[in-house]
Amino acid sequence: MNWKIIVIHALLLLMAGIASGIFELHPSSFSPDVVLFNYFLNHCIMLLVYMAIFAHITYRTDQYPVAHTLLAFLLSDEVASALLAFFVSYLGAEPEPIQPLPFLVSEYISLLGVLFAGIKAGISLKQRKLLRSARGGSASTNA
Asked: Distance of alpha carbon 10 from its chain centroid, rounded?
């Protein structure tokens, strides 16, 4: 296992999640339509960035690419949970009384879909690279 690659990609995932949270609009500042549109747009962009990071780690690792990708995802998720718990307890903020379970379930389902799509994209890119190198390059030049 290449822990350097796992930690680097876990930090990339964490930074992408933090950046996504920074750019979210506060619900009381705007109309519900604007907040909902911003939430879905922000969520789609975040998922595309996550998929690119998952594809990159899968592409970069030669042995056990799926395990590397899953470990980076789990490490990032655990660090994010620990940071959230720390900041909530440090700032003394009480979570708002909402029912987050449907949002949490949909978020984890979409993350799993993006995880598998990123792994598939990384494996496909790696296979394409191997096929191209087996054929002797991308194009032959005949003069």
From this structure: 9
